[in-house]
Specification:
The protein contains two helices and two strands. It is an alpha+beta fold and 102 residues long. The longest helix is centred in the C-terminal third of the chain and has 54 residues. The model has no long low-confidence stretch (mean pLDDT 91).
Length: 102
């Protein structure tokens, strides 16, 4: 387990991560900090704890929206696949009936 000291919104934290994941952790830290700045820009001056809480809620809301969109997309893809299989079944049935008449 690798141990890193990261800085998030001006505070240092010691964080463990899997070996080789240090760069990914830094990317995540940058992403969270950018979101914190966005939220702070929307709500104005607030405590750090409140800013972290609001940022978490904002990110969780986005994550839920993305999960729902993925679920909808999967359902749409499944419906398209079912329609394609039905179409192919009809096509094969039609070809088989024509072969039977020859």
């Amino acid at each position: 387990m690798a141990k890193l000291t990261v800085t998030l919104y001006g505070r240092e934290y010691s964080v463990n991560c899997d070996p080789g994941q240090e760069q990914r952790l830094q990317e995540v830290i940058r992403f969270v900090e950018e979101r914190m700045k966005e939220v702070e820009g929307n709500v104005g001056n607030t405590t750090e704890a409140r800013l972290l809480m609001l940022t978490c809620l904002h990110m969780a809301d986005e994550m839920i929206d993305l999960k729902n969109k993925i679920k909808e997309t999967k359902q749409e893809e499944e419906e398209i696949l079912i329609a394609a299989v039905d179409h192919l079944t009809q096509h094969v049935t039609h070809i088989a009936s024509r072969i039977g008449r020859v």
